[in-house]
Amino acid sequence: MPSRDERNVKKMKAQMLLGPSALELNDIPVPDCGEDEVLIKIKRACICNGSDPALLAGAHLDKYPVVFGHEACGEIVERGRNVERFKIGDKVSWWFTMGAFAEYVCVNPMKVAMAILPDSISYDEGSLFELVAAASRAVESAEIKTGSKVLIIGLGPSGLIMSQLAKNLGASEVVGWDLFEMRRRTGLKFGCRKVLDNGLDDVTQKTLDEVSEVNVVIDAFPDDILPNMPTLDYAIKVLKCYGKIVSYGHPRNRRILDIYEFQKKCIQMSGPENRIDRIKQLIERGVDFVMQGKLNLKSLISGRVSLEKVQEGIDLVVRYPDKYIKILVDINTEVE
Fold it and tell me: Under a CB-based contact definition with an 8 Å cutoff, are residues 161 and 192 in contact?
């Protein structure tokens, strides 16, 4: 392992977001590992279908430049003197820091939800645990009880993880809405009993006829893509009185909501769980689910790119949502 002084002059490749729509592969110094941090050699990263295109376009960030990406898995190669639980050689994934599209990243384990992964979980699967933690936050807020009926709007990567988690937590029925046939088919393999095309005018009535009202709606949808198709408004119509909506998606524009129906049904609405101590427990639970065969991550992987081609990976998930679910980014793969 090179010394700190040697690393100060050592360079690494990183995808730098220099400003809105300005992504560039640069050589930058390997970061120094602080006393409360671990230095991670990233093995695999993931394109985030929701956040990465929005961040690339200029949403949410007010400081540039920044090392792009936030879904990753790697090996700890150095730890600061104040770090106790994590050690050199641990395979780890974590929620949430920027810096995934690089050869190395420094992370403070006390400020994130970091999980140690067993050898039986591959780096490919490991790179999806940031997403597992994120999706678990929404399912946690949904307060799913044994026998609950759950509607998930949007069967992208998060929605497909949520459908499995909902079943694991006792949901009697999980219904998935999505615009794309491939994702609806995948939903049937990932815990959904029924899948419907929310681009159809009669999706509300079909849901009521074939499933009846639901207890919980998890909205993992971005913007309402189709004109005059207020997806969230449709969902309220299939939600029971005193039901709950969890808002999880990242719309860039406003969503349409019939506030009268919302009030009439005494609906509750919340965002995902944000307490870091609880999220640490949720990512650990996700590891257990994978180990028990209750959470399938491998089947979400539908493509991969090199670190040099991150932009191409982002373009693929944006242009072909009917073909790609998760695209991995291969980094430091020489010896695994």
Answer: no
